[in-house]
Here is the input.
Amino acid sequence: GNEIPEIQDFIQENVDHERSEEMNGVAEGKNVIFINAESLQHFAMDSEVNGEEVTPFLDDLAQDEDTYYFDNFYEQTGQGNTSDSEFLVENSMYPLSRGAVFFTHGGNDYHSFPEMIEDKGYTSTVLHSNNKSFWNREQMYNSMNIDEFKGEESYDVSPENSVGWGLKDKPYFEQSIPLLEEQEEPFYTKMITLTNHFPFELDEEDATIDKFDSNSNTLNNYIPTVRYMDESIEQFFDDLKDSGMYEDSVIVIMGDHIGISENHNNAMAQFLDKDEITPYDQVQLQRVPLFIHIPGDGNGEQIDKISGQIDLKPTMLNMLGIESDEDIYFGNDLFSDDRKDYIALRNGDFITDDYVSTAGACYDRETGEPMDQVIEEETNSEEEASEKSEEVQNTCEAVQDQVDTELSYSDALIYGDLFRFIDFGEEEE
Ligand code: GP9
Here is the structure.
């Protein structure tokens, strides 16, 4: 545990920022329903196939006066996919660069969101119709202090209501309502959808939009399954309203990770109407939608600042009015203007307000042009070009150093199981 003071100093100097006073406590005492939307990517939002909106409900929800919609929000997962996204959200730490931390370090101590909200009277549950050993969830949820995991045995699953990976999202959400109702309030419940999962299988009767037409069956099939997920979330909102739980809850919806890999770049370029998918585009495709919906709030807006999954824990803690000064974490409150000026991806790429850094080059974040090219176009002499080039290189190198340090500290906490040495002063169960 010798590294702990150094890590704490780094966090205090570099990560710790003011939280939003305006949003402090806005969700105090309310239920938090967190929907992990399987493979939901940003590119699907506001898109059309054959003149039909792909995600009509979510597109409207993004504009709703009770919704804060984050438009430049990145998934930061590695090989652990959904489990990595869960790890990021619950701990505000990075998953590992190889393997899934849920498997490799499922028995560690953590200082998770569920643990921190327990003192405020919150119970925490995960509702997911899959077996409990998948991603070693049962052990990891225990380590992250999640009180209960209701897996596939809590659902009525039959061949008729299943497709692909298991229970379809519509019956899943429908059957989840009584499970939510029986929970003691206030609760934090994570719901993990399943139908919009590779290879994106869907029964004909559930398809309400055409497939895309390209040489990638994966991308083609993705469109009707994303639409099905959109409809299932709409149905869930209606059911929540009918049940009376809606007003007492804050609903967070987050795309967990990409669904369409770079193997489908030709088809993706066709979908996005681009000549090709550049390394810059590849990073931008790691954007996933994030909605924070607070019924009755009325101040919702689209927030364009760069942000990522690492930011959810400090954001939700602040919304619940929970003090987290002593916490060890690597993200910032999404509602604060005082934030780190970069988002790190697990492979060491990063995004700042000005640049996207990937594959050893910095790109202009707004236009996607490589900075070398921008400098060549915008300068009038070799001297000016070389000065500007040095400036950009220094900026990108400095951020890269921060990113590498941050990732290595997060790794050190996991590899050394360092939380077991830290007393956060909370009551043990
Ligand atoms: C499985 C589901 C999918 O339970 O969460 O996980 P993924 O394969 O997307 O990581």
In short: DSSP finds 13 helices and 18 strands in the chain.
